[in-house]
């Protein structure tokens, strides 16, 4: 049985094409992240508890998750007679950027810094469609690695599109000021607009805006922005050689000790420990 490896050193398909896939039976209980890699998985049978970035949920057939390089997760077992089984496939970050840019040039950053976990529940038709493609992959000769790679990238694009539609339906329920705020934060516009300017534009008081945002998203505006900054820091720690102090200042933290504290609360490790893992 193949277990997750951060760089798949013995996987010919990954070394040649930057993609990997496997079917996993059981519970993978070791916490791990995905430096330089995006992983997707779909539950095919059984139930498990999925723990990701400090949150947990009971998952079953049809649960679909996209795990970004910064996401740290693992599984825990439940009292069930059916052995949990999930399909997992992974794609290099550079390939994911090209795929997402082909959909929308702002989509990569939007998903990378999205404050919540990227998950959804697929319906039975969607699960069966994916599984039929997977069966085709298992019977495809390894020599046809380019074909396998293209098929996996196509399914990734397809599943991301399904997730975006579901996400859009949810965001359409947000009040206009909340939708515009979130879009503004994710695009990281250089012409920064203050919260007070948003309030004036939509004729809300500052207190009203905070209440509306919390009711719509389930997070306070401050927590939302803090998580967004920490997600950016996580990516910078893995993708650059910038000093930790410089990253702290770049994302808008005035205190390195406070940055370390909030980072550890979110990722269960300090920035320095994460930076060291980059070189393992």
The biggest beta sheet reads: 5 strands, antiparallel
Helix and strand succession? HEEEEEEEHHEHHHHHHHHH
Strand content: 15-25%
Q: What is the number of E strands?
A: 8
Structural class of the helices, strands and pairings? Answer: alpha+beta
Radius of gyration: 20 Å
Strand order of the largest sheet: 1-7-2-5-8
Span between termini? 24 Å
> Kindly state the mean pLDDT as a whole number?
81
**Uncertain stretches of 5 or more adjacent residues:** 1-7
Shape: globular
Please estimate the helix content.
Answer: 40-55%
Count of DSSP H/I helices: 12
Chart the SSEs and their pairings.
Elements: H1 12-17, E1 19-25, E2 37-45, E3 48-52, E4 55-59, E5 63-67, E6 73-76, E7 85-92, H2 93-103, H3 107-112, E8 118-121, H4 124-138, H5 145-171, H6 176-187, H7 195-202, H8 206-217, H9 221-239, H10 244-250, H11 256-267, H12 271-277
Antiparallel strand pairs: 1-7, 2-5, 2-7, 3-4, 3-6, 5-8
Helix pairs in contact: 9-11
Account of the 3D structure:
Residues 1-7 have low confidence and may be disordered. This protein is α+β, with helices and mostly antiparallel strands. The strands form two sheets. Strands 1-7-2-5-8 form a five-stranded antiparallel beta sheet. The chain has a three-stranded antiparallel beta sheet with strand order 4-3-6, with no helix packed on it. The chain is built from twelve helices and eight strands.
Features:
disordered N terminus, three-stranded antiparallel beta sheet, five-stranded antiparallel beta sheet, 280 residues, 8 strands, alpha+beta, globular, 51% helix
